[in-house]
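User: I'm writing a tutorial on reading structure tokens. Could you give me a worked example: one chain, its sequence, then its tokens, then a sentence or two explaining what the tokens reveal?
Assistant: Sure. Here is the example chain.
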Amino acid sequence: MVKLYDKDLTRKEVAALSGGLGHAAGVRSLELSDGVERGIRMLEFRSGTGLRFTVLVDRAMDIAECEHQGRAIGWHSPTGFRHPALHEYEGEGGLGWLRSFSGLMVTCGLDHTLFMNETSTEEYNYAPRQNAQHSLHGRVGTIPARLTGYGERWEGDRCFLWAEGVVTQAVVFGENLELRRRIEVEVGTNDIQLTDEVTNRGFYRTPHMYCYHINLGHPVLEEGARYLAPIKEVVWAAHENTYEQQGVGYRILPEPQQNFHEQVWQHAMVADGAGEIPVALVNDRLGLGLMVTTKAAQFPCQFNWQNLQAGQYAIGIEPSTHHVLGNNAARDRGEMIWLEHGENRRYDSRFTVLDDAAAVASAEAKIQCIIMQPDEDFPKPTGVFAPIGGRG
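And here are its predicted structure tokens:
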């Protein structure tokens, strides 16, 4: 059954109510036409519950806007959803990525994530290019997708909105990695399903790193908002030497700050019985939040990003294939994912909008049933980066 406006309906009953489902839910193609966003193809999803989100086809099919009943969930930075033609990957010493950084989700990868560094490229057997200079968080987030389809799919009396596209990151004498992304939401629900598959289409043995930068802003983020996660221990804090100086811990968020320096944690998480890790940001005043659920086997590492500076106010949930130590450390520790021709990695994630106090309470109970997170604002980082096994 399709649940619309607090009523369960069959497909026939939905068809009788209007000329099409589009009066209540649907997915349609749009194009932005002004400023730095001009020319970006975009898909708009409406699930019928008040959930609306947009997908930037020309930005790796990342999720840009996200709102529920007019209440914003995804973060909007000052950069806007900048057209990829304006992006300079190697600009500003590798920090040019920050000029294209906005939206609910920005994908990082496909062969590099985290900060800038230089790595050997001996696997590509090309003498003029002995090393690669990697910029912040890799290339994929500003590569346009080839849109392979979108629309409605009915399964009996259930209806699913979907879109699928292919993003290719490739170079001569280097990587040829393909990201196939599928996004689905069932009509009448608040669950966005994201299925990614990264495949090596080339014939060189190729490194693969992957991370989602999931960014939440006002009004989900405001003074008193809470970060909930099944945290066993804090592994690392970028600001450990000045841990309490700004007075902002990992659990409870303040109002926008002046002269705030970003804070990043890596937490060691515990998965539930199904091997899943749920992480949420919740606003108790509004009864609003977002829970991100990933699989521990796919994303064994989790980061928490805080950019609480006034005018850029955001918090990030970041599931990652690798530790915060970076590209060279992953190689040195034997934890890099190496893909031979035709090999792939799959990532299955779910974004759930928590639309009232009951949904927030249910999410919190689900997380607490796994493990109670540290109840102090500044738990001491252990510095223990557990080995990541099972990598090809």
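What the tokens reveal: The two ends are 42 Å apart (CA to CA). The mean pLDDT is 97.
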